[in-house]
Every structure is written in structure tokens, then in C-alpha cells.
Amino acid sequence: MSDIDSKIPEGSLDNKWTKYRSTVPLVNPSNKRSLEIIVVGSGLAGASAASALAEQGYKVKVFCFQDSPRRAHSIAAQGGINAAKNYQNDGDSVYRLFYDTIKGGDYRSREGNVYRLAEVSGNIIDQCVAQGVPFAREYGGLLSNRSFGGTQVQRTFYVAGQTGQQLLLGAYNSLERQIGIGSVQMFSRHEMLDIVKIDGKARGIIARDLISGKLERHFGHAVLLCTGGYGNAFYLSTNAMGSNVTAAWKAHKQGAYFANPCYTQIHPTCIPVSSTHQSKLTLMSESLRNDGRIWVSKKKDDTRNPNDIPEDERDYYLERRYPAFGNLVPRDVASRAAKERCDAGHGVGASKMAVYLDFASSIKRYGTIEAHKKNIHNPSEEEINKLGKEVLKEKYGNLFDMYKQITDENPYEVPMRIYPAVHYTMGGLWVDYNLMTNVPGLYALGEANFSDHGANRLGASALMQGLADGYFVIPYTIGVYLSNEIRTKAISTDDEAFVEAEKKVQDQINKLMSIKGTKSADHFHKALGMILWNKCGMSRNEKGLKEAIEEIRSLREKFWSDVRIPGDANELNIELEKAGRVADFLELGELMCIDALQRNESCGGHFREEYQTEEGEAKRDDENFAYVSAWENKGNNSWDLHKENLEFKEINISKRSYK
Amino acid sequence: MNFTLKVWRQKNKNADGKFVSYPLKDISPDMSFLEMFDFLNEELISKGEEPIAFDSDCREGICGACSMWINGRAHGPVPGVTTCQLHVRSFKDGETIVVEPWRANSFPVIKDLIVDRSSFDNVIAAGGFVSINTGGAQDGNDILISKDDAAEAFSASICIGCGACVAACKNSSAMLFVSSKISHFASLPQGKVEARNRVQNMVAKMDEEGFGDCSNTYACEAQCPKEISVEKIAKMNREYLTAKLL
What fold does the segment set B118-245 form as a domain? Predict the structure, then answer.
């Protein structure tokens, strides 16, 4: 039995959400005006939640550490957003999106949550179109779709290779509209540094004004954390430089359970690491796998130019191993397969830690189609090439440009070199069906929560989940809590709880500033990243994880005795910001390893070397591990494990095969 | 590679600033421009000096945070990229590289190379949106939009709000930024309903925020990292005149 309650409503799966949202308690419009909500983070989840709640009449305060809410890292999402519209008449449905997502997550997510996500997916597209998001269109004016990994239908909506940007700007514009009206108060260049709890309920936050360095107290009847994932624990990832776990981690230390921290998504198609000075990794969208074929040479240590390697000496290993899904297998499967080939000595490029993503055959295919459309009979190879490249440019132009800029190679002429990199974290704050953590009044939305993607997220589902949570879930479910808060008057920030919380934050800042050590925060961050990448990355084993825990503990000690933060705390101080975030990553890193160590099975992004089939596929253990691990912080870097058992009533839990 | 970085240092908004020179040795040509700054900052920290403050977040050219004025150009010498996408190999070995913050009255310097661009947000809040609440939208395919119109809207909506256009303009005009948002909506049926109010409110706010006028030097287009065309400004002017006259 689970010892925590996910509050999934009773009833048939396809009717749960409809029935629930029709029966949840409401807050009348005049009461909404006196209820204050704090939203931390302004990405897809935060901006959509803030604008939707403000439209309903709630008083909303939004906080982000960037200089503008438009810069949240959702903006960098490339490929697309899924929705079960079945516009392509290819057999899609809410059920199929639900099924693909559960299977894609390797049967480690909640049926109820995922079904709801699939149900509201269509509304998101409608909403974004109405906002003026310039989605890709067909010649007749209808919305265009493409395929993403782990599915056999075309349900991904997109705007060239910058879908995240356009969706975020849509949400940002809506947010700015509410700011203009005065129903949202915006605090940019502010970082949340603690949750304030009164009588066990979340009642506000302590935030640091990053320009003046001053600490501020803010009251809210509810606090929503929309602060993204923790992939930057690895230092090198596709996340933004500032992406961090601090808000979620402070919440965790205030009692919120942290769920499934070991589930990290390593994205298969990123530009490989080239030097030790590298500060971040750049993704090449999964959508490229629609048209690119992944291969390595059949010969080990082949140093030939890729264009000189004849067709029959190439190993299109994904097509070989997984004929049903081919290059569009889910991310965890594609990443492991790339690692396997490189480890076996077939890696390409100078570092030998890369595989090819080749567009030559698509250029030919598209070029031939275009030639037909343009009534060119017997087109020359040159003409076909030219036309084909134009099609690729329209579909992925910005990605190809980005690749060229970084690597100095032209992907229209030579295959891209790619390798897996940390991209997304499925784990996060534990939330119930209402998106509330176990701390009353404290919510987590988007990547910051754990709820919908199980052990592996399918491509184009992060945008879907962020906007689902913000636009279409929280506006309903927050009523369950706030309907009981209408008599709670705004609490003065002179209240003892606020004073104490601020003091605690100030103490930590003072402590960090007083160390005056010899090494920068980045130094410790890089060291932590190496430990996690090597021992808690694409594959893990018991020995490595145990070592990692010890190494992280000792690194943490060094950090607290040797970090150097120049400058003053009462001014803009980027090193102080970084140090605070690294301090939290150093605690989270240990928990990631502890979680990976207790999960004696392989599932999704969590691949334990001890648990694999003879063919090297992940070997799940449904009898013993079909649960969410929810960690309770006991202080001093010790944790208790709570288990939420996952029940599969609709789906027949089975072997996950893409062969 | 070796360089001398001549960087604007300014303690805070009210302090006077000055250029400080930093010699750099053995820089790998594959380093990005900002990684060179990371490298320099590491050196400064190890010497006990304060690192150079600069904005940067996504480091893949899309968030619009980075904002350096490099050798007299917004985002440096390579057209069509942001500072974070710039690589050291684009500079000559031994070169002195001068780096300043954006200079514009509407973008006051906060510290070193960091400026305050909240005036951009204020312009958007004045009208850069479609006034629809969440929930009531019709089916996405009910609005037919031609491929050309979608492409035209997209060519404007790609603006990343970095402020290079303002920095590049001798009048510190925000016309390219504002016209990108206006053009985006003006190209789509969803934007038509409020077109009149939108353009008037956004232009009024732009003036109120202290941005200058346009004198058609096209410096904005030349230095826009997303290469947005000045045709958007022409489109905004048409929209504005239509709103005022008709």
C-alpha cells in the first residue's frame, strides 16, 4: 500500500477529469480578488498559470531570476508540441497519446494524470493558435504536423525549429497583458530563496532582489513553483546557464517530497562536447530524426570522411535493432544505443564519442518530390539536391545554422556528428492530482514536478505538459484548496514566520560570503557534474553509485570550506547567485544517487547495468518497483523513502518493445 | 590565440565606469566568446578580483539575454548571431577587442555589461498581445492561414528582444523591436481585431519609455542577430497611419 495519497479521483479513466473539474469547489469572483497567488518561474508553466489565474481574477505575483519573463528556458525548446488532434487522419486519439506516453515513460507514471494530459492537449493548440502563435501550415491553410520519437502517428505541431520560443512568447504576451492591466505584479531579477510556512501551510516566499541584494518577504495564499528541472546538476547540459534546482530544493527542505530524482533524460541528439572550457551543450532537435538517419561505420576506428564510406559499410544501428520504430525510437533507447556503439569502438569524429545523423537520403527524397511538383521532368542530381536542401532549410533552417556556427561544418553537405547529453529531468517535486505537493498550498507545475513522464519523457511532451498544467489544470484544481482559504486575510510579512525565514536565508548568505576560500563556485559545479555524468548518467551500477555518494559528500565539505565569492552580498553578485545554486545541487546530487541505488531495476532513463536483458535492453521489475519514490528530507542530508504504488487499471503493463 | 580584452567596468548604476584592459593568452579558437569571458572571470576570481558581470542564459542564441557591444557592433562582427553564438575563431590573433554594454537612455547600465531592458517588457504590456482569455478558443483548424501569411508572421515573431536594434541605432530607436511584434500580429487574422489599438498603444509607450525616432539608417537590420528586415518598420508605419487616419 502507498503511504501517500495521490488523490486521483474515482471513476472511469476517460471520465475522471471531466467529472472532477465539474465538481471541484469554486471560488466566487469577488473572493478571487482578495486571494493572492505567488508564481515562481515564468516559463511555459509559470507564464501560462500566472496569466490564466490572473484572468480569473486572482491577485498574482510572478518572480523570475532573468531580466525578463520572456527569457525562461522554455524558449529554447525546438521541435514541437504534441496534441491528440488526429488532424492527419492517421489513427491518433486521446487514448493513443495516453498509451504512448505511459509506454514511453516505461510504465512509471500515473494513469490518471497522463490521461488528463492527453485530454487537454487539443485545447492547448487551440489556445496557442488563438494567441497568434504562427504554427507551420499546409498549403491549404491547415495546421501541419510531424512525427516524434516513440510514436507512429504525426501529432507534433511545430513552428520551424523554434516551437518553444513561439509558445513561450504567446504565454509571455498573455502574461504581459495581465501585467499591463495590473492584475499581475512582475518581479524580474528576483530569486526565490525560501518558502515561508505558517501552521504547516505555504504562505509566502523570501526572494532576493538580484540587483540590490536585498531580501524581500512576499505573502501569498498559495505558492506555485514553476521553476523547471534540475539537469544542470550535471554542469554540462542543454539547460540554460541559470537553470537551477534552488526553489524546488528549498521547498523540499521545507517538507515537500522530492520524487524520482534518478530519472534524468539524456537526449540522443546533441552537439558533442569539444573542449574542457565548454559551458553548455546544444541540442539538435529530435524532429531531425524524422529526416535524418543515424549511423556509424561497420569498421572500428574508421577515420574515412563519412561521405566516402559506401552504403554497405554503414551500420544504421537503430534501423537494424528497432525496425518498427527505426530512427524514431524514444530518447532513452536511442541514447543508450549510441553509447553502446561508441563504447564498442565505432564512434566517429575526433573524440570518437559521436555518431552520424545524415540527411543525404532525405535531401534526395524531398528534392525528387519538389521536382515533380514543379513539373521538372528528368531532373538532374544537382537540381534534386538543390530542391531537397531548400525543403530541409524550411523545416530545420535555424538548427542547421546553429550546428554550422558551433562546429564550423556544413550539415547540408556532411552528416552531423551527435552524441547524447543531459536534457530534461522527469523527477521533481512530488505532487498529487491537483498538482499540490504534500505541503498544503505549495504547488509544482511543469518540469518542476514529477508527475506525467514516468522514467522517460517522449519528445514534444514537455511543452504539452507545461502548458497543460498552467492553462488547463491549475485554474481548476487550485480551487480545491483556495475555496477553504477565502476567510484567510492577507498575513503581514512582519509575522514571526517571515522574520525567521528571512533570517535563515540571510544566515546562509553570510555563511557563504564568509568562507573566502580559493575556488570558484563553477569549479565545484564542474566537479559535481563529472561525478554525476560518470556514475549516475546514461548507465549506473551499484559500485559506481556508492562511490559517487562518497565523492559528493566530500566535495560538499570542500565547497563549504573553500568556495570563494568575491564582491559584496548587498549588490549584484553573480558568483553569490551561482554559489547558492551549487550548494543545492551538491545536496540534490547525493539524493539522485541514493534514489538510483535503491531502484534495483532498469526503466526509461534509469539504466542499471546489473539489470538488463541479453540484448542489452532495460529490464524492469514491476513486481518490486512499480512505485514512485518520494523522498522526505530529514535534515542533515538524510532522507526517508515513501512509496506511491502505481496502479495500472486501463493499460496492460507489459514489456516495452520498439522492435 | 592571444587577445587583449578592453572591457567596460562599472560598479553599479550610479557609479562612473571605465575601460579596463585584460591580456589573455592561449585561448582555444573553439571557445565561444562568452566562454572566453568565463575563462577570464575564473582568472579574476583566483586573483581575488571581482569577475565581469554580463547577462547570458541559454547560450544558444534564442533567449536574448546576452548583450555585448563588441568592437563597435551589437553582438560583434559576425552577422546573424548573438554574442553567445560568437566564437573566438572569428577574431584575429593578437587583436584588441573592445566590449561595452548597450548604450541607450532607455537601457540604463546596472553593472559592468548588464543593462536594464525592462522598457521592452513595458512596450509589450501596452499592446503586444491578442486579448483572449484562456479557454474559449475555437478549434485550431477553424482559422485557415496560408503558408505565406504564417511565414510572414514568423519572420517577425522570431525577435528575441535582445535590444541590439536599440544599441545599434544612433537615435536609440526601438522601431525594429516594436514593429516586429506589430508585424507578427498584423500578418495574421487573429491580430486584426485589435490592430488599431495595438499599434497606437505600443507606439505611445515606446515614446514614453524614451526610445528615439527612426532616421532610416538601417543599422538595426544590419546588427539584428535574427536579421529581421526593416520592412517590418514600414509595415508598422502603414498600420499606424491606417489607425490614425481611417
Answer: Fumarate Reductase Iron-sulfur Protein; Chain B, domain 2 (1.10.1060)
Cell numbers placing A429: 517535486
pLDDT band at A654 (very low <50, low <70, confident <90, very high): confident
CATH 3.10.20.30 placement within chain B: 3-111
Beta strands in A213-335 (DSSP E): 215-219, 222-225, 258-259, 264-270, 293-297, 314-315
Q: Tell me the C-alpha distance between A156 and B56, whole Å.
A: 30
A187/A177 Cα distance (integer angstroms): 15
Which class is domain B3-111? alpha beta
For residue A2, pLDDT over 70 is answered with: no
Give the pLDDT mean for A42-46: 98
Judge: B62–A75 Cβ closer than 8 Å, yes or no. yes
How many of the other CB atoms lie within 10 Å of CB of A489?
7
Q: Which three cell numbers stand for residue B186?
A: 498584423
Looking at residue A584, which CATH number applies to its domain? 1.20.58.100
To which residue does cell 546489473 refer? A610
Tell whether B87 lies on the interface with A, counting CB pairs under 8 A: yes
Beta bridge partners of A315: A296
Three-state secondary structure call for residue B155: helix
Contacts of A261 (CB under 8 A, 6+ apart): A230, A425, A427, A588, A591, A592, A595, A631
Nearest CA in chain A to B89: A408
Does residue A586 surpass a pLDDT of 80? Answer: yes
Chain A residues closer than 8 Å to B153 by CB: 132, 134
Select from A139, A180, A405 the Cβ nearest to the Cβ of B125. Answer: A180
A3 pLDDT higher than 80: no
Averaged confidence pLDDT in chain A? 96
Question: Measured in whole angstroms, how far is the alpha carbon of residue B92 from the centre of its chain?
Answer: 26
State pTM to two decimals. Answer: 0.97
Strands (E), chain B: 3-9, 18-24, 69-70, 73-74, 96-100, 109-111, 114-115
Strand, coil or helix: A60: strand
Contact A173, A131 (CB under 8 A): yes
- Domain membership of residue A398 (yes or no) is yes
Beta strands in A159-276 (DSSP E): 184-187, 190-198, 201-209, 215-219, 222-225, 258-259, 264-270
Q: What is the mean pLDDT of residues A572-577?
A: 98
CB A40 within 8 A of CB A125: no
Residues 6+ apart with CB under 8 A from A106: A332, A454, A455, A456, A603, A604, A618, A620, A656
State the catalytic residues of A: 331
Whether A131 and B116 lie within 8 Å, measured CB to CB: no
Does the beta-carbon distance from A127 to B134 stay under 8 Å?
yes
Name residue B89's amino acid.
R
**Which helix (DSSP H) or strand (DSSP E) does residue A630 occupy?**
strand A627-633
- Output the CA torsion sign for A526, A529, A530, A531: positive
Interface pTM, i.e. ipTM: 0.98
Residues contacting B180, CB < 8 A, separation 6+? B156, B157, B158, B159, B228, B232
Residue with cell 530541409: A392
Question: Which is it for the CA torsion B19, B25, B30, B31, positive or negative?
Answer: negative
DSSP B102-147: ---TTS-EEETTEE--HHHHHHHHTT-S----TT-PPPGGGS---H
Closest to A257 measured CA to CA, from A63, A111, A525, A451: A451
Amino acid, res. A124: I
Q: Which residues contact A538 (CB under 8 A, 6 or more apart)?
A: A266, A335, A336, A339, A420, A607
Can you tell me the mean pLDDT for A572-587? Answer: 98
Dist. CA A115–CA B85, nearest whole Å: 40
Residue A343 lies in domain: 268-421
